[in-house]
Design brief:
Layout lengths: L1 H37 L5 H13 L5 H15 L1
Helix pairs in contact: 2-3
InterPro entries: SHOCT
Pfam family, one: SHOCT
Protein name: SHOCT domain-containing protein
């Protein structure tokens, strides 16, 4: 009986880990797609405005915003 309980707990943790990993992958893809769309234009002002919109709508978090902003500004130099 104890072995069955342990097996069920392991399965539950495995499913939780899989779902978390899948959600992170989906978030990463969404951020990458959004940033790629932004970098399609050469206008730095437009890129930064789109990036800020992504932050404000919750598509990206503050860390993603800062990293992408630095990339845009660095490419402008």
């Amino acid at each position: 009986m104890l072995i069955i309980i342990i097996a069920v707990i392991v399965i539950i943790f495995a499913i939780a880990f899989w779902r978390t990993n899948r959600n992170q992958n989906e978030h990463t893809k969404k951020v990458n797609d959004s940033v790629n769309t932004i970098t399609d234009t050469d206008n730095t002002e437009v890129q930064l405005k789109h990036l800020k919109e992504l932050l404000d709508t919750g598509v990206i978090d503050r860390e993603d915003y800062e990293q992408s902003k630095q990339q845009i500004l660095h490419n402008k130099l």
